[in-house]
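User: Here's a chain of 273 residues. Predict its fold as tokens.
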Amino acid sequence: MSAPSLGPVPEHLRTGTTTRGDLMAKQILAMIDADITRARRSYGRGTWGYTVLRTVYTPDSDRLFPEAMDHLKRWILFYIDRGRFSSFGGRGKEVMAENPERVNEVIRRLHLDVIEDKENLDVGPLSFNSPEAFYQLEKHYRQTMNAVREEVESAETGRFSDCLIVDAESLASLQILFRDPPVPRNPDTLEELQQLKKAGRGSWLWLLDSKNTRRHHAGAVVDGLDESAVGFMKIETGMIHQAWYARSMSWSRYEFFLPTKRHENGEVYLDYW
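Assistant: Prediction complete.
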């Protein structure tokens, strides 16, 4: 386990005027800076991102996994930078973040802490029909997080609340990313914008909501919580930064569960909001 510890976010990047194109970047930087102020730990200080658990250990995965992690990070950075261009044509030029300084600072502070532990994490194929494997992974993740912070805090960023998991199925999907992402830009047409939004689609990982997985394991019921909220879900790679953002925005809430949607095939995905 190793995550860098970075200094405060420059004030002009987390305050001041913004456009629609860099509003999320500004808010992410503000949350990172707030975490620096309130958290009594050095691990991951001044950064954002997730712990990634590798749960597949085969000769093929030994070859593919390092490359998948390299490409995953590059594509996450693409998705963040693409956010500067939220429309197209003339309207796109009006709302885009022409100055990439905020986005570049978010990119600089991304850290994925990969854990590889064949003895404890080789749990076999993951499935919604076999929740015991997720309960085991949640326990390992929680113990790992408790070991790198000075105290258990009542409110946490995404790094300390949720983790990403790569099994054989998700590793296969990540091969979609084994190419260079497009260059983020203001598209000329709606069709071009839609094509940019489809880039990398089909690639996904597992996302484990630690608190909700424990709730599901205990059989606890939360009023108003959809039955699809089992605590573990699939997440498209293009939504990873949005999931961290949603979790970290929930600091002031007593209860918060990431929104999920159950597909007709029974699979649960992180939902859009």
